Task: structure prediction
Amino acid sequence: NAGVTQTPKFRILKIGQSMTLQCTQDMNHNYMYWYRQDPGMGLKLIYYSVGAGITDKGEVPNGYNVSRSTTEDFPLRLELAAPSQTSVYFCASIRQAGQGLGANVLTFGAGSRLTVL
Amino acid sequence: KQEVTQIPAALSVPEGENLVLNCSFTDSAIYNLQWFRQDPGKGLTSLLLIQSSQREQTSGRLNASLDKSSGRSTLYIAASQPGDSATYLCAVPGGQKLVFGTGTRLLVSP
Result:
């Protein structure tokens, strides 16, 4: 199984440009998340989704948009990129975040390193 | 609101030492707790998942314990090796999300 796949791995953007970070999981997980991690800092939740067609804001949603048209895909869109969005972005998925059945292990993608100049 | 704290923030030890990393959470009504490892420039890898009904979970030289009543979990690493150098994070469910601690950065010197 591929797990959680993120593309691109690296990207440099100019201020004001837009782009989409792709995230795909093949584990039939219901819950998907986008985090950002600034250098030396912890993870901050941007957006999350509990199933296809359902998305919700996390701690730091401003400047980002998401969609969840399928169970597998959860793209993150950056509109009008700003230097403050320079970060490493991680996508993650889990079958169910709460009690659920079995072992609910959160699986992360390898990350997308974004630089905005 | 669930808050997760990890102590210490950083730890440097010589190879071979046994060590303990601590994780505290404010809301004890959790279903499980996970420990993750993050290598520099890499993503997070799940190490151990402890269900609320369990008190311990072991994987190789790693042993994680969970005390819900006191809001604490510990990750014990036996006979540390330079390859254990990484940042270790714990996370607990907070509603439909996982709440992460800020991590403990571990450096094991040869």
